[in-house]
Amino acid sequence: MIWKLNDNLLNLGKIFHKNGYSIYLVGGAVRNMVLGLDPKDYDLTTDATPEEVMRMFKRVIPTGIQHGTVTILFGCDQYEVTTFRSEGKYTDNRRPESIKYISDLNEDLRRRDFTINSMAIDLKDLKLYDPNSGLLDIKSKLIRAIGNPVDRFEEDSLRLMRACRFASQLGFSIESATLVGISNKASNIVNISYERIRDEFSKILLSQKPSYGLDLLRKTGILKEILPELFNCYGIKQNEYHRWDVYHHCLYSCDASKNILEIRLAVLFHDIGKVDSQKLNSKGRITFYNHELIGADIAKNILTRLKYPNHVINKVNHLIKHHMFNYSSDLSDQAIRRFISRVGIQNIDDLLELKRADIKGFDTDSIDNNINKFVNHINKVKTKDAAFTVGDLNITGNDLYEFANIPKNKDMGKILKELLDVVLDDPSQNYIDNLLKLAKEMYFKK
Q1: pTM above 0.85, yes or no
Q2: Residue 128: beta bridge partners?
Q3: What is the pairing mode between strands 77-83 and 43-46?
Q4: Of 74, 32, 70, 29, which is closest to residue 49 (Cα–Cα)?
Q5: The dihedral of CA 385, 388, 391, 395: what is its sign?
Q6: Contact assessment for residue 271 and residue 233, using Cβ atoms and an 8 Å cutoff
Q7: What does each C-alpha distance from 212 to 167, 168, 172, 207, 283 come to in angstroms?
């Protein structure tokens, strides 16, 4: 193979070689290059100790020096460099108690997680080193743990999710012994921080076909540990309009949605409230009344537990809460204006994307022309000079105070909302003299 490495990286390698040390590109960068993908970052390994690396370069950050890792700032780039090492016992399912510097590259590569991540390229002659047959597993599209899978997952329980994530991102299968090892050690995932679980979960969610990785989490037992709320959707039957149970409907809807984190989270959890809201009506038909409100609260709890940022939590909560909107083709302009006002004009596109994905999740061949008509109707109403929020009114609180003698208190807020209701019904009412007149009538009648 011909490796295309940038000059900055090769020049860094020359400094190591000039000083009598070896230096290799390792990990995900090599895997991606073998796959024909662009490397996202460059991790390096060397026989130089961190102290020796810091003597060779002027700008070095001791990012993980206790584990033999430093970050070199070189040119406009930065490179994480780790000294060849072997590792002591793992007692916390995450980090070794101790490390020992070694001089053998192959031994260093054997301590890594999966064969596809254990290849190295010598920056001197660009030779590929592959002691664990990672190249063969890439050709076979397999995720395989190095050595005994149980040992690898005992060392670092995050590898349980990483295996499923790599399979999802690359479209690979997980080798049978590795899959058994994941299932045997799935309960250890609770020893990993929620932040790290969140990051792996997000990467699965943003893969080309998230349903594949998510279902691997279910089959191996990981999903039950980290997302019992979604796991409990498995086997929950729906009414006759649905082809799938709640769990599969959510996963297939997720596959059909745009690759944007907030949207995929909202789509994945949009029906999660159906487990708690399911009932049989008098005709023996399954119903899920208010599942969107229940689901919005459940999703908020999940995302809070996984420590997502507040703006993500609030966005997802809002989309789920409003996803059961009426989009029939006979809605009036007034109804459309109230819909836009209720959900927020800034959320319209994302909410429509959730609805399209929801429709696809009924049946992958589903097409609903009414949604397209609804979108056209919304766009038509949006182009008109309409007010959808209090801020869109052609009057302000200061105007009410100055010209209508209405004090700046909670009554003013109520009146502004009542004025918005008037304008939502009839946009022609949105001019200041009329609004002042209406405001006085509203206030002085109280």
Answers
A1: yes
A2: 121
A3: parallel
A4: 70
A5: positive
A6: yes
A7: 8, 6, 10, 9, 37
Q: Using 50, 70 and 90 to split pLDDT, how confident is the model at 94? A: low
Three-state SS string over the chain comes to CCCCCCHHHHHHHHHHHHCCCCEEEECHHHHHHHCCCCCCCCEEEECCCHHHHHHHCCCEEEEEHHHCEEEEEECCEEEEEEECEEECCECCCCCECCEEECCCHHHHHHCCCEHHHCCEEECCCCCEECCCCHHHHHHCCEECECCCHHHHHHHCCHHHHHHHHHHHHHCCEECHHHHHHHHHCHHHHHHCCHHHHHHHHHHHHCCCCHHHHHHHHHHHCHHHHHCHHHHCCCCCCCCCCCCCCHHHHHHHHHHCCCCCHHHHHHHHHCCCCHHHHCEECCCCCEECCCHHHHHHHHHHHHHHHCCCCHHHHHHHHHHHHCCCCCCCCCCCHHHHHHHHHHHCHHHHHHHHHHHHHHHHHHCCCCCCHHHHHHHHHHHHHHHCCCCCCHHHCCCCHHHHHHHHCCCCCHHHHHHHHHHHHHHHHCHHHCCHHHHHHHHHHHHHCC
CA distance 294 to 290: 6
Distances (CA, A) of 324 to 339, 351, 403: 12, 10, 42
How many CB atoms neighbour CB 392 within 10 A? 15
pLDDT tens string 188-207: 999 999 999 999 999 999 99
Of residues 102, 105, 127, 128, the one with CA closest to residue 116 = 128
Residue 247's nearest CA partner among 239, 238, 256 is 238
**230-240: buried (b, 16+ CB within 10 Å) or exposed (e) per residue?**
bbbbbebebee
Q: How confident is the model at residue 98 (pLDDT cuts 50, 70, 90)?
A: low
